[in-house]
Design a protein that fits this description.
The chain has 98 residues and is mainly α. The protein is built from 5 helices and no strands.
């Protein structure tokens, strides 16, 4: 019983740490959107919560120089729809490497 309680506490701590990380990422993304020189994002896009994998997708795009949904599917272990949505988000943020 004591071991189970310790495992539950550890799991809760892991979730808390992950949530803090997601909040940091969202703050960085919101900051980059507000500093964007284009300034032409739709109000719908501003209200959307960006994908938590966006930062990792951007890193992959920068490293590879080119990016496809297929590459993101393999690297991030996500489905096609999510990979395509990440590419759309990168294009909207002008972060996509070309």
């Amino acid at each position: 019983m004591e071991i189970l309680i310790k495992q539950l506490i550890a799991a809760i701590d892991d979730v808390r740490i992950e949530l803090e990380s997601v909040n940091e990422r969202l703050g960085e993304i919101e900051h980059s959107i507000s500093l964007s020189p284009c300034g032409n994002y739709s109000s719908k896009f501003k209200s959307e919560i960006p994908d938590p994998l966006l930062k990792e997708a951007i890193a992959i795009a920068k490293k590879r120089g080119k990016i496809t949904a297929s590459v993101l599917q393999r690297k991030l272990q996500v489905g096609y729809a999510r990979a395509a949505r990440l590419i759309d988000l990168m294009e909207k943020l002008n972060k996509k490497s070309e």
